[in-house]
Amino acid sequence: MKVIVMGAGVIGVATAWYLSRAGHEVTVLERNAGAARETSFGNGGQISVSHAEPWANPSAPLKMLKWLGREDAPLLFRLRADPAQWAWGLKFLGQCGKKQSTRNMVQLLNLGTYSRSSLQQLRGATGIAYDHLTRGILHYYTSAREFESALEPARIMRELGCERQVIDADEVVRIEPAMGAIRSQLAGATYTSADESGDVHKFTTGLARKAAEHGVRFRYGVRVQRLRTLGGAMAGVEIASESGMYEVLTADAYVLAMGSFST
Q1: In sequence order, what are the residues at sequence separation of 6 or more whose Cβ sits closer than 8 angstroms to the Cβ of residue 21?
Q2: Among 16, 21, 94, 187, which residue's CB has the most CB atoms within a 10 Å radius?
Q3: CB 50: neighbour CB atoms within 10 A?
């Protein structure tokens, strides 16, 4: 099958890799001069299954009210006269109930566990070096209330196979001695030893090279101008090169992995 992947970030490149290994003919379109030049150039770099608790949870509505107007808020929400924004907000609030939040956490946890396992297999198969470390991720709390609210999600995660352990301040300092400076402020913490970190840019560019060696065609410096449809289905992609040359590409399947430009 002929497949066009739009976007050469970590999602697009990984998708192209797996499609190619499955025997498909893959072309990747990217407006930059190389892979991982935008969203995947630099991010948190965490492979953190323990972050599976969704933003939409029972404590979120009150927190969002407190965060309104704060430019440094963890979740920045600027109110506008935009029906789409208000519709999204209502859907978000509808997922903040305990039942919905737990269901979503289970789904995210399963997806995260599968993703981490796939990454480990890919790393072993390709030997890509991307400053990978498996030192775990520590979530610490200076508020007793926040710490108490983290205990139930941690329990559910442990039941589902994610070893997010609840630890005290002494154990925090043992794991990370630098935390000794605020030892007296620590209410508690959770620690997931299996969580990982790495350089997403190095990973993506390394995988792009491997994919190209296995036959994936990368077309850099081209912009997706429009998606053609016919009868409610994709019928082609209009692209333009940096020189302004237009072209229409067709395939049997299409993957849109252009970050914020996918909307």
Answers
A1: 214
A2: 16
A3: 25
What pLDDT, on the 0 to 100 scale, is given for residue 242? 77
Chain-centroid distance, C-alpha 175: 26
What's the rounded Cα separation, in Å, for the pair 56 and 101? 6
pLDDT computed for residue 112 by the predictor: 94
| Separation between Cα atoms, residue 52 and residue 56, nearest integer Å | 11
Give residue limits of the domains in the chain: 2-43+201-262, 46-198
Residue 81 half-sphere exposure, CB side, CA atoms within 13 Å? 0
**Spans in the chain with pLDDT lower than 70:** none
Q: What is the pLDDT of residue 253?
A: 98
Question: CATH classification of 2-43+201-262 is 3.40.50.2000, yes or no?
Answer: no
What is the reported pLDDT for 244? 82
* Residue type at 150 in one-letter notation: A
